[in-house]
Amino acid sequence: MSDSSSNRPDVFHSIDVTRFDVVEDSGSRWQRFWDNGAVRKVAILIVLAVVWESYARWKDKPLLFPTLWATACEFVSSIRDGELPRATWYSVSLLFEGYVVGLIFAGLLTAFATFTRIGADFLETLTSMFNLLPSIALLPLALIWFGVGELSIIF
């Protein structure tokens, strides 16, 4: 059997180097540099930092709007003193307590709803009531029920 592709004019076996074909243009060095997403994001951060610093110096009210440099210095100072890690640990542990209490409560409610019909109706009613309510709207209720403190935050 003969090779039929050798007689077909639409099948090319070699590249004609005398013609000018389309070649991918990689762009200039600046274009390749700017195409990097990390470079663009760093540029945005630099612009935001310059705007922050300029506005704070123009306002000249450090208590109302401190400069970026003063904020960064205070951030490093609070880390060095141990104040920021201590406050961060307190907040994270309080959130963790809330998650654990929520998981236990959800597990008990789910078990109650799984084993009894009244539990299923109760869970369905609670879900339909609180589904429409944004979670931030529960904050005043938590403050009324538990007062200002750890219990309202855990709730």
State the main characteristics.
7 helices; 0% strand; single chain; 155 residues; mainly alpha
Summarize the structure.
With 155 residues, this protein is an all-alpha fold. The chain contains 7 helices and no strands.
Describe this structure in words.
There is one protein chain. Helix 4 (83-115) crosses helix 5. The protein has helices spanning 29-34, 37-59, 68-81, 83-115, 117-131, 138-146, 150-154. The chain has seven helices and no strands. By secondary structure, the chain is an all-alpha fold.
**Please, what is the average pLDDT?**
85
Rounded to an integer in angstroms, the radius of gyration calculated over CA atoms is: 32 Å
Instruction: Give the ordered list of helices and strands.
Output: HHHHHHH
Sheet/helix structural class: mainly alpha
Taken from the alpha-carbon principal axes, the silhouette is: flat
* Tally of separate helices: 7
User: In which range does the helix fraction lie?
Assistant: 55-70%
Give the oligomeric state of the chains in this entry, treating copies of one chain as homo and distinct chains as hetero.
single chain
The unreliable regions are none
**Number of strand segments:** 0
| Separation of the first and last Cα atoms | 83 Å
Mind describing the biggest β-sheet? none
Q: What fraction of residues sit in β-strands?
A: under 5%
